[in-house]
Model the fold of this input.
Amino acid sequence: MVFALLIVGLSLWYTSYIANKVQVEERLKVKLWSEALRKKADLVNLTNKSFEQLRVEEQRKAKLWARAAKEIQKELLDYDLPFSIITESHSIPIIVLDNEGRFNDSVNLNFDKQGVLTRLRTANPTVSDEQMEELLSIQFGKFVRRTTEEWERTYPPVEIFYAGTRSQRFYYSNSQRYYDLVGMRAQLIASFENDLVENSALVPVLFVDSTRRSVISHNLDTVKFRIHEAGGLYETIEMMAGENPPIKVSLAKGEKGYVYYFNSLILKQLRYYPYVQFGIIGLFLFICYLLFNTFRKAEQNQVWAGMAKETAHQLGTPLSSLMAWIELLRSQGIDESTIVEMNKDISRLETVADRFSKIGSHGKLEPQNLVFIVKEITAYLTRRVSKNVSIKVECSVDELNAMVNRSLIEWVIENVVKNAVDAMQGKGDIKIAITSGDGYAILDISDTGKGIPASKFKTIFQPGYTSKKRGWGLGLSLAKRIVEEYHHGRIMVKSSQLEVGTTFRIALQLG
Done:
């Protein structure tokens, strides 16, 4: 037993050790992920700053391009400076309109002339080349109007005035290089988010800002945890904080963030594993107890049956001799009344031997008149107990059949009545009430003895328990076996009061 407990203790300790180690490793993973988030935030901030600088620089170049265009209109001897400015700004898309909104010029304009022309020819296969050029001009005008309106919402156009009332408006936007970088940044962030969501090795995490009201990143099931709702986010944070303390993360510009996380499924299983072990061990012990109890009862039954059969066998020889001695005494002219009484005792011994012979074998149950059996056994006992003991039978009917083995059930009643006589110390009243109900014939055997404590109601039926100085404590135990195992009935202490009396109840199936 000690060795088994030692093994269990070592197993529990090792399980706890592994669980703590897994928990430390999971927290380290979350810290590394938090650091990656911080670097991501720094990268995004740096990229945004770079994009802003690029946007401002391209805006400056567009304005310089407009000024250079104005300079070219003048009568200059050296055009190197304005042309170098225009060349420097070659990557910026620009559309030039006159003061009446007509198209003048464009640079880096992404107009698919060939594609538009192909579509027009497909839709209008019969038009001439001149008409096709006119249609193409109309489509280009529409494209210019849409593009300038779109660019104007982002950057106000630069207006250049010339001599007189003539002017030009320069519309511009960010270069293709700028938008290529924006796309690369978006792909970088999306890749990071996908890595987070698809990373099965990472525990469930939630990254929130310092107010704990805004989610920065997560890999949780949004339907299950409702983190985009204020109440759901608060509940999720509370649950996560209950499992692990949050990890503080420093972000750009002095801002803070907090990372909350759940334990992984493996860690939870390791945490519950000791309880599973206890359950398995408990189940194993329970099964062992049941097996041991079954074997013990089987062994007890064998001992009971062996003792009973041996007793019946031992009684057989002297009974035969006594019967021979009675015949001898009768032949010698002994008083016949004496011989009659001796025959009654021999008959009683034969009944006792028959009872013992039936212990250990399931005797046949037959419908018997329980009222007659009780009256006959009480009549026999009345002549053999103290004259100060009164035994009365109460029954409203003369016949009540029950499925019994007569010799065994007489033994039960005799044992209970004799225990009652002993409890009254040879003086008092015994009442046997016979009733029926719920498919059972019921015997209530009451005495006016010293009573039984409530704590002993079940103990008195255990083998070896007795309150007498001389006794084996087998009478009530044997009665319980006969009633419950052979007759499938019930025997119990119905009620008892100290110094007032006790009532035993025997319930037998009706026949």
About this structure: Residues 75-83 have pLDDT under 50 and may be disordered. The chain has twelve helices and 15 strands. Residues 273-361 form one domain.
